[in-house]
Amino acid sequence: MLRAGLLSSFILVAACAEEPDFDTRYEEAEAAIAEKAEAIDAELAAPADRESGDGSDPKGSDKD
Fold first, then answer.
1. 51 and 58 in contact (C-beta within 8 Å)?
2. CA distance between the termini of the chain
């Protein structure tokens, strides 16, 4: 009976030790959000770069 209690206690402590603390989870989430934000910014900037970089008038060439 004592052996089963010790084994259960050891398993419980080992399982809790593997869970990351709040700060670790926060830093990981912050990094993931920053990555996604950079990807979105790059995606939104790409069409604007293509439009302004080709030298043509984006509204058409109605100038006479």
1. yes
2. 96
- Vertex 57: Cα angle to 47 and 45 (nearest 5): 15
> 38: which 2 tokens?
């950079």
C-alpha to C-alpha distance for 36 and 49, rounded to whole angstroms: 20
Give the pLDDT band of residue 20 (cuts 50, 70, 90).
confident
Which tokens hold the place of 45? 């900037």
| pLDDT score recorded for residue 28 | 97
- For the chain, the residue count is 64
Q: Flag whether the pTM goes above 0.85.
A: no
With beta carbons less than 8 A apart as the criterion, state whether 43 and 37 touch. no
For 23, 30, 32, 40, 46, the CA distances from 35, given in Å and listed in that order, are 18, 9, 5, 9, 17
